[in-house]
Structure formats: C-alpha cells, structure tokens
Design brief:
This protein is an all-alpha fold. About 75% of the residues lie in helices and about 0% in strands.
Length: about 240
C-alpha cells in the first residue's frame, strides 16, 4: 500500500484508508457536480432570457409558448453539458474509479469514443426538455394568479419559491420514467439502447420500475429549480431587467 496508508508498524490502517478514500471520493463528486451544475444553470438562464427577449419582448408567453420556451433553453443547456452528466452518472453508480473530471472525460473518450460522452442523449432530452417546459408553464401560470401587490412586495422571493416548488413537483412526476431510462443507458452505453433499457425495467419491476427513486429525485430537482428561479428573479429585478 502507499506510504500514507501505513501505520507505525508498517501495516495498512483500514480506518485511515477508508477515511482517505471517502475524502477522495467526496472531492471528485463535488468537483464534477460544480463543473456540471454552475455552467449548466448559466447556459440555461442566458438561453432562456435570449429566447424570451427575441420572441416575447412585448407580451408574456401563454401556457403552450412557455413549454416551448423552457424546453428550448433546456435543450441547449442539456446538449452542452451532457458529457459532464455522463461522468456524474457513472461516478454515482460506483462502477467506475475516476480520479478527476478531466481524467474521466479523457478516459471515456480514449476507450469508448466521443459517442459515449453523449450516451443517453435522447433519454436526457426526453426527460430534461419536458421537465423544463412543464416547469416553466406551471411556474409562469402560478405567478399570473398572484395579485400585483404580492408579486412586488417584500414577500416576492418567498412567493416565487412557493410557485417553483409546486411547478417542480408536477414536472418531476411527469418526467421520472425518462430519468430512470437515461440512468440505465449512461451507466453502460455499450450494452443498453433506449428500447433495451425500457424492456429491461418493465420486465424486472413493471410500471413501478419507471418511478423508482421518484420521491428523492422530486425533492432534489424541485428544491434546486425553485432556488435557481428565485435567485434568477431577484437578480433580474435588481438589474432592472424584465424576467
């Protein structure tokens, strides 16, 4: 074993090894999460704002237009950040021992080719684009029901967060099956096609298999989306821009 894993008697200390391995794993997990999430949020909201300014400068989008607006912005962000999503999924599966995000990207590219970095693209877009579209629709429609004095009051951030939570739960439940399929494909792209993954999930667990993990995913995505939109709304208001 490496020197830093030895105790004074020259023997491997299992507790020390465990701690070091946990620290290393945590660092890799945090680094790939930041690399994926922060640029992804920036790409999404900048695309969303650009599309809205171009197509809906003088009027608010209706429900159908809100779906297209959110889905379009998410498609751009999703394709841009998919290689990092693949690395995140593989790391969380516990089947791969990557040391860093850059090392993982290089390893996948050299051993499996560029295509592997975009594995699960269809399933990802089928999950993320509808999620974002449905989210924006519910979020915008919920905000329209608010009295103007509430929307412009000191409680606006809290109200926006509440609207975001409702929208997130609805959107998460609708898109959960596509998320389960995407995860199967990205863990082992050489063995799974989208049709194979769907057949396997249904054969093993039935319809319920497509909704496994729905509660933790719904909570995570709902909280993240609600927080992101609340911050976005506040930043736009501070800068005097129309959100």
């Amino acid at each position: 074993p490496p020197p830093n894993h030895l105790n004074r008697g020259g023997m491997c200390n299992p507790i020390q090894v465990q701690i070091l391995d946990m620290c290393a794993s945590s660092c890799v997990f945090l680094s790939q999460s930041f690399v994926r999430c922060i640029p992804g949020v920036g790409i999404y909201f900048s695309t969303f704002y650009s599309l809205k300014q171009h197509f809906f400068l003088d009027q608010a989008p209706n429900a159908g237009e809100a779906v297209l607006l959110g889905a379009g912005a998410r498609t751009v962000a999703g394709v841009s950040m998919l290689p990092f999503t693949v690395i995140k999924t593989r790391f969380e599966s516990g089947c791969y021992n990557y040391v860093s995000v850059a090392g993982a990207l290089r390893s996948v590219y050299e051993t499996e080719g560029l295509r592997a970095l975009f594995s699960g693209l269809t399933a990802t877009l089928l999950r993320d684009a509808p999620f974002s579209g449905i989210y924006v629709m519910f979020y915008s429609q919920a905000k329209k029901t608010l009295p103007q004095e509430v929307a412009s009051s000191a409680y606006a951030p809290l109200v926006n967060f509440g609207c975001g939570m409702v929208a997130g739960v609805m959107a998460s439940l609708v898109t959960q099956p596509a998320d389960v399929v995407k995860t199967h494909i990205q863990i082992s792209p050489s063995h799974w096609s989208m049709a194979d993954a769907i057949r396997y999930i249904y054969k093993e667990n039935g319809v319920a298999g497509f909704f496994r993990g729905a509660v933790p995913r719904s909570l995570r995505r709902t909280l993240m989306a609600a927080m992101a939109w609340t911050v976005y709304e506040q930043l736009m208001a501070r800068m005097g821009l129309k959100s």
